[in-house]
Amino acid sequence: MKRLLFALLCLLSLTARASEPIATTADATESENFNPGEMILHHIGDSHEWHWFSMGETHVTTYLPVIAYRAGSGLSVFSSHELAEGKVHEGLKLEHEHLISTDGAKVYDFSITKNVATLMIASVLMLIVFITVARGYAKRGTAAPRGMQSFFEPLIIFIRDEVAKKSIGPKYERYMPYLLTVFFFIWFSNLLGLLPGGANLTGNIAVTLTLAVITLLITLFSSNKNYWAHIFATPGVPKALLPIMIPVELIGIVVKPFSLMVRLFANITAGHIVTLSFISLIFIFRNIGIAPVSLAFGLFIFFLELLVAILQAYIFTLLTAMYIGGAVEDHHDADYQMGGGDGAAPAKAH
Amino acid sequence: MNIVTPDLGLIFWQVVIFLIVVLLLRAYAWKPILSSLKERESSIEGALRMADQAKLEMQQLQAGNEKLLAEARMERDRILKEATTMSNQFIEQAKTKATEEGARMIEQAREAIRNEKNAALAEVKNTAAQLSIDIAERILRRELTDQPAQQQLVDSYLKEVKLN
After folding, report:
1. Which of A98, A141, A152, A247 shows a CA-CA span of 20 to 30 A to A19?
2. Contact A178/B22, CB-based, under 8 Å?
3. Domain coverage including residue A142
4. Signal peptide position in this chain (chain A) (predicted)?
5. CA dihedral A210, A24, A194, A286 (to 10 degrees)
6. Number of structural domains chain A divides into
């Protein structure tokens, strides 16, 4: 099963790579006033206002708050409406969605951007959903689950039994809150990103970077003697090779979360790029005949993205659990074939 | 290369909001949910174990019942047999007794009949003797007077005599 999922992941990574040339050809065949590359990058990037749609000259936009800090002038808080269409407000203006100061001072931008707003929506959604589910357990006790509770229970049990118990072992319980939160956060955010007008939250490198760094910190703070012994004196490796092995292992500590960051970012962003590219074809060819083809492919990619949404959440959670498992495992755990229904395949990440 | 440059603001919000979500969910969702799941699993396990135990007890009970039933059957057979023997014995006894009694009664009856007969015979003898004497007396008395008349008399007396 796991191997199958990884095979799927590889396949999806291929689509991700394949999508880039499409975008560049779209750039090359650029028509006078439609630039698909720019449009796509605008769509997958962050912005200070939430632009829903435009009809002719009417733009339906939600203006979000701008919060900026400059060393000289302190904190400025105002609506992004003040900055619309290149306007300058309190010495600040937007240039390619970057907040810059007209006097050249360094700006620390803490604005509630589209992505931050989506982050808040996802968080509130999660709180509502899971506190409701928890209330179901409080109300029904040990009786059979109902409604939303019975939808989420298998997923929670799956994360606990298949991910946490198998990868981390007997100490899994401490890490369950993080694993569950990260799984559902990525999944919910992926799905919100697929909604029309939704922001590309999990396809933003800042978000995946943060999640990966949290995983790294948890791994480092829960690491035991064995973990470091593996890095500085890898068992079974001749002493002469250690000068090579130690840097490799140290790089490995950083590469693991780095791969987490890039995998989630690339998969989600690629999905958005591919979908947008198919839609852009209609405008590139300026032909209604291409629309059914675009729609069919776009729809196919959309359903694929629905699968990728939960798949990437699962992979991120599984790998996080494996990294934690590698950090907390005791030396003798391997002998006990811990956490394995199938003792033949110890679920360990190395 | 805008999309691969992390935004400081978004990192800040992501850290703050995500950590708050983790803490809130841990306190208000994951802990109650996971403990409920564990509780339910252990209760199901307990129920299964109890069911197994009940099954075992049931089997034991059934075996006990069967044993009891077999015992009862044996007891019944024994009692029946005993009763049959006893009744046969009774019948046999009664028969013997009845036969004996009958024999005794017949014997008694015979005895009585014999006695009666003897008594009757004795009486007949006496009567005959008396009669003979009487007749002889009368004959003797008539003899003395008239022969034919005597003969006639004898006949008439003899006619009178009814041997009862």
Report:
1. A98
2. yes
3. 114-329
4. 1-18
5. 160
6. 2
